Amino acid sequence: MATAPRVPTATAPQQVRVPFRVLLQRRLLAGALTVILALTGLTAVGIVWPMAQHAAQHAFVSATREVDARLQADFGATRQALQVFAHALEANPPSVDAPEPFLHLAQHAIASMPLVTSIVAGNGRGQGWLLLWRPAQREWFVRLTDRARWGDVQHFMTLDDSGRVLRTWREPLAYDARERPWYRLAMATPGQVRWTEPYVFFTTREPGITAALAWRSPQGEPWAVGFDLRASEIDAMLKGLPLGPRGLAVMVDGAGQVFGRSDAPLTLSATATGAWRLPTAADTAPPVIRQALAQPGSEASEPARLGFPDAHWWVTRRAVMLGDRELSLWLAAPWWDFVPHLGRWLALLAGFALAVAIAALWAARRGAQQFARPLEYLARAAEAVGRLSFTRPVRTDWRTAEVQALAEAMNDTRRRLRIFQRRLQRREAQLQREVEALTAAEQRLLHVGLHDPLTDLPNRRLLLERIQHALARGARTGAPLAVLYVDLDHFKEVNDSWGHDVGDALLQQVAQRLRELVRGGDTVARLGGDEFALVLEDIDPATAQDRARAVVAALEQPFELGEHRTHISASVGLCLAPRDGRDAVTLLRHADEAMYRAKSTGRARVVVYEAGFSQATQEAREMREALAQAIADRSIALWWQPQVDLSSGRIVAAEGLLRWRHPRWGHVSPATFIPLAEDGGLMPRLGQLVLALAFEHGRRLEAAGWSLERLAINVSPLQLTGEAFADEVLRHLQASGWPASRLELEITESVLLDEDQARGGLQRLEAQGVRLAVDDFGTGYSSLAYLRRLPLDTLKIDGSFVRDIGTNPQADALVESLIQLGHAVGLELVAEGVETAAQRDFLAARGVRRGQGFLWSPARPVDDWVAHRVAPGAPVSS
Predict the structure, then answer these.
(1) What's the whole-model pTM score?
(2) What gap in Å lies between CA 176 and CA 633, rounded to an integer?
(3) What is the pLDDT of residues 412-444, one digit of tens each?
């Protein structure tokens, strides 16, 4: 990028320029920093530091006293509970044959004593009882011993936390309670609570101590009971002592062995004889404890202060008396953890900060007077630049070198920004032109999506929108509305005789004649094939019938198609709003029914819709009754058509399609019985049947080894208008266990037109993971706005578009537009009706991921899938 030429500025007389840093140090820091540093040092060294140390020592002593009280309470409670337990056993001696009273009493004792993990008891006859709580298994472990009757065979059982027996067994084990340390110690002084030296428990092989108490029964038989305290429970108790975040607690017995520590679990070592030995404090205790043990007078209980590289520590020894045994509890913590955050410290610091602030403010005000003027000027100049005003130059004759350099840089920036401003203005104009071009392209794409590519008439989607808008206007003004459904008679003969090019030319001439028959505010649309529709607004019934007869007359006139001349006729169905319907779909369907009545009664005529056309014939009524019975006895089948990955050719999904075979009518098309179900109120029951069959088939397909990404089923618009539809789908999902993310519901574009009723249920389903697809896209009535507002995942391109791929450039362009539209709104694309490899390659090259159609397979029964007779290109079964 070219650099703007530097504009010469007037130079001031040469002056001695002092650096901005030097002036700042002289005026502001010379006084303020001296005062701040001096007062901070004096205060910290002379006042704050000694007071903090004294307060920390006092807090540490208070903490150790609290530790003493807590330990006395914990061990004292254990001793008292042991005495109570022993008195209970003395009053009601336990039995190894009926140990339940002992177990019940022991369970309550262990539950009430956090330090006690197991209880043992024994007598002079060699009988023994053990109850141990296993927290990892959430169960009680019981061992029963009777040396006189069972010898070395021990009886074991496990109980759940409610006391129910889970398992019982026997196994040989050389255990005799009379030989255990706790029993021998208690028997030495009956009636007195004795505490053992730390030793390894027989059952758990963990270190611990036992509080034991012995007595003699009235018959002179010796008894003893013990409360076991595991070293791990002592560790947990030590971790909970109030010693701050880094405090340490280590319990040492009379032999110098570590019995408990708060910083790490104990690790046992084996002796030469195979016995287990506790670690010694001199070898394994934390460094601060080891240094305290090595200090002269280490048995003193007053706190000692020890220095370490990272911190100074307070260390003290507290004597823990367990009966006649004395344990040493060493407590240590960094002194800084006990410095209290009290109000007097805050007040002291606040007073100091206030004094420093006053001194700094005085020094700053003195220096700021000399620097404020140029800075304020430069600030105003910067504000002008911020307002995009680049015309006024910035003054640069300042005494301070840094300020002058800043002013010159601002001047240079101002010149560059002025250049950039001009470039941005040119770029803005260019972007405006690009936006206009994109808008025009969007309008063209919208036109393609809403109009028939052959005749340029509105398609079905735009027609339905215009009918809906006309109904809304009629509801406000009371103006009537007429819908004409036009079908060309014998049009297929033209295609078969002279080819599709001549047929297309005929359709274009028909479209032109229909345009000439309507008024400016009316609509002519092509619905597909040889079907057209007219919407006549603000028209009375008689005039509407005259206009319909005019359509028949106009289309009976000969058509010149190049070297061919032909005559055709038209059958017209007419319905009126609001008499024959209050929504676009209903009006179009009724006009269609009237048109079919015109065809069935001779063609080339106009038939006005009458109530009851849908149920006019006896056969229609019989078929509806048969359909209801078929739904009830589940004789309607759900066949599956595979959806294939276009890049790999692998079957990745399947769409469920209903099939109904009747003894009288044979194979009945869904296009025949679905409208009957909708008109007869059978859609809720039919929809429930489809859901049930889909999930049953899904589990069968999984069991047969099919790994499909999802199963797709079609949903009628009438189902979506019901409030219970989403609940029904979620209920079936929960009952079947089928993942919601592997279910795809295919809805027609008519649902998008009435999105307010369907949106709530669709959003609930989408929130649970159910995928939503728009079926037969391009043949219906949706708009881009509806696609953005509803929670859609997939767009299915209708087979009528796919079938025309390669036949003419307009058809290819329409399909490409639909694909681009799907990509633009972020939806996955599936092409329906793929019948040739050329169609498949065309779609895959434009980013369509999946396709379905007769190129791979028609819909097949689930039994064919289970038998793996379904594969891309598999033969069609009869």
Answers:
(1) 0.39
(2) 74
(3) 887 888 888 888 888 888 889 888 888 887 888
